[in-house]
Amino acid sequence: MSQPDLLRFEEEAWGSGFLHLAGVDEAGRGPLAGPVVAAAVSFPADYFRTSAGTTYDALNDSKKLSVIRREYYAAILQADAAIEIGVGIVEAEEIDHINILRATHRAMAEALEVIQPQYALIDGLPVDALPCPSQSIVKGDSKSLSIAAASVIAKVTRDRLMGEYDALYPGYGFADHKGYGTPAHLAALKEHGPSPIHRRSFRPVAELDQLDLL
């Protein structure tokens, strides 16, 4: 394994008896439209002692990978029967109802419930109400291989969903900006108004809603 430091947290958990361990990360907290998506990925405890583990020598935080590399890793993760993957999705309407932080935590809990690990490594700050004990790691997607894998699955899953939404709601450019507040997205939002997948509690969208009421 060319990057053993990325297994430090996993090795500590495995050594403590948590053999069914998952890394968890999310994608889509910041956009003005679309869901927040969380993924949980679990490698077997002995996985990286086999030749299969070397497949992930260059795996890292999804933000540091090209689109092609993210798609590559997502495909091989999903094709490997030894690797467990759970995904949780919370849509814009629910984000508006419970706020983005709680929606993110709910998506993480849903992803974990799919694979039901003994223990989880979570990217970012502590998360309450998860279905298993967890350890939070700031910038964990660049410090833990399991979290990095989850970041790839979450990002690729969300990007694909935004491509589907682009076909449903043309004119906004969702396939390009993925719902983030780019100048092109803001211009389209002003021209067309909010779509059904816009987060109406987020400021630029909320401001347009207020103008419509005037």
Would you mind describing this structure in some detail?
The chain is of the alpha/beta class. It has one domain: Ribonuclease H-like superfamily/Ribonuclease H (Nucleotidyltransferase, domain 5), CATH 3.30.420.10. Helices cover 43% and strands 14% of the residues. It has 8 helices and 5 strands. The protein has helices spanning 8-15, 67-79, 92-98, 100-115, 145-168, 174-177, 183-192, 203-213; strands at 21-27, 36-42, 84-90, 119-123, 134-137. Strands 3-2-1-4-5 form a 5-stranded mixed β-sheet. Strand 1 and strand 2 (36-42) form a beta hairpin.
Describe what is shown at a glance.
The chain has 214 residues and is an alpha/beta fold.
At CATH level 2, the architecture is 2-Layer Sandwich
Largest sheet: 5 strands, mixed
Q: Strands of the biggest beta sheet: in what spatial order?
A: 3-2-1-4-5
Order of helices and strands: HEEHEHHEEHHHH
Strand content: 5-15%
How many helices does DSSP assign? 8
Average pLDDT rating: 93
CATH-defined fold name = Nucleotidyltransferase, domain 5
Described by the principal axes of the CA atoms, the overall outline is globular
Overall number of strands: 5
Radius of gyration: 18 Å
**CATH secondary-structure class:** Alpha Beta
Our measurement of the CA-to-CA distance between the termini, rounded to an integer number of angstroms, reads: 61 Å
Total count of domains = 1
Structural class: alpha/beta
Question: Superfamily at the CATH H level?
Answer: Ribonuclease H-like superfamily/Ribonuclease H
- How much helicity do the residues have? 40-55%
